Amino acid sequence: MKTPLKWAGNKTSLMPQLLEHLPKGKRLVEPFGGSCAVMMNTDYDEYLIADVNPDLIHLCKYIQMDAGQFIADSKPFFERSNEEHLYYDLRLSFNIEPEWQWRATVFLYLNRHGYRGLCRYNQRGHFNIPYGHYKKPYFPEAEIRAFAEKAKRTTFICADFEETLRMVRPGDVVYCDPPYIPESATACFTQYHTDGFTSDNQLHLAHSLYRLSLEGYPVAASNSDTQETRSLYGRFNIHKLTAPRRIGAGKGGASLAPELLAVLK
Hints:
CATH class of the largest domain: Alpha Beta
Largest sheet: 7 strands, mixed
Helix content: 25-40%
CATH architecture of the largest domain: 3-Layer(aba) Sandwich
Radius of gyration: 18 Å
Order of helices and strands: HEHEHHHHHEHEHEHEE
Number of helices: 10
Number of domains: 2
CATH topology of the largest domain: Rossmann fold
Shape: globular
Structural class: alpha/beta
C-alpha cells in the first residue's frame, strides 16, 4: 500500500524483503516514522509512530482526527497552485504560519509539488526544498483514506528516538529506519531536520537497540550497507536487502542500492 507522502527512502517497494525478517509482536514501535510505509504494510494490533518532525506528526494526527476535513482543506491547493511562484508563496507562508492544521495541509502540498518529495529544513527551521516542476502532481485521496483507517490503531507522537524507546512495553517490536549512514563523503544529500542525525546518534541508536534486545524486546533497524554500519551492528543478525533509489538518479530513472537490516529477536 502506498502512503500519502512521497519520501526519500520510502519502504513501500522494500516491504516484501522486510516482511521476511520483521519480528512478530502485538505493537510495532517506530521511532522514525517517515512516510509510515511500514505501518501501512504490516498488520500489528497496535502502532506507536514517532518522529522529530512536528509537521509530519501534525499531518498524521489531522488525518487521524478527520480525514474528510483534511481532504477538503488540502485538495484545493492541488487544484489551483501548480505554478512556481505560487509554490514559493505557499512555502514562505508555511515557514511563518503557526496554525498546525493549516500547516499540515500545506505540508502535503509542498511534499507533492517540491523537488522529488524531499523533506529538508535549514538551521532556522524553515522548509527549503525547491519547486519540483511536475506537470500534474497527484492528489493522494485514496491513500489518505486508507491511512486514516490504519491510524485508528495508532498513536502518533513528536519525539526523538531516545524518548520513544523509553516507552516500549512487553509485547512490543521495535523497528528503526533512521537517516542512513552516507555511502560516501558526497552521498549525504539532505538535512532532514535542523539538527541532522550525527555519527554519535547512529552509535547511540545501535547501542540502545542492543540493550533493548538484552531485555527481551525484538528489535530491527535498516541502514545503508557500509563498513561503518556493519561495525555498529556487529552483534546483530545482518540481512542484505536491495532497494530502488530514485534520489540522485537521472530524471525518471532509478538505481538499485544495497541496504542491510539488522535484527535481534
